[in-house]
Amino acid sequence: MQITFKRKRVKNLTIRVKPEGVFVTIPWGMREAQVQDFIRQKKSWIESSWAKVSTRQRAYTYTEGEKHWLLGREVTLRVIQGSSSSCRIQGDEVVLTVTPETDRKRMLEQAWGEQLRPILVWLVQKWAAVMQVHPSELTIKNMTSRWGSCNFRNGKLSFALDLAAKPEDLIESVVIHELTHLLEPSHNQRFQQLMASWDKEYRSKRKRLNHFPREFYG
């Protein structure tokens, strides 16, 4: 486990645990001794958190017979040598036709994104009408520490490509979460009440989401 330290103009020391290591943001004025003491106090939490996220991120090789996750179900990768690259989904199989130059991960990212986009578009339209909000642009991208984001000022929504691996009810919960930010930018009590009114099981869904295997990580 690698720990990376970075000083920034922030009020408080923060720790972010990712599969590739631990990232500590330190206020400019904090002394080194204070930082080390804080890390020692949080040692058990850091180690347990890192163990959880690192085991959820699989080391994929994108080879024949490998198992992947797509919309909440496990699918099997079939690899065929060909003169050009393509990817097609047939039931519980993903058939990948490759050449020596094929970027296999990139092809799966594109295929997963194509599966995810129409679901997101439909869910955003559905819940925007219910909430009477007006989102604008919708983008899908790799995210390392979030499932989505919402710009309260311009209505732009972004969603993690990794949602394509998750069941639709968990994708829907993330959509509801981000759209609720158009009504309440922060995660205060009003936000929690609004979320509960749209999605009564959003807390348990968030736990499932965070413990579901990861496909893409940044």
Automatic annotation (TrEMBL):
Residues 11-211 form the YgjP-like metallopeptidase domain. It comes from the Bacteria. Pfam families: YgjP-like (PF01863). InterPro entries: UTP_pyrophosphatase-like, YgjP-like_metallopeptidase. Signal peptide: none annotated. This is YgjP-like metallopeptidase domain-containing protein.
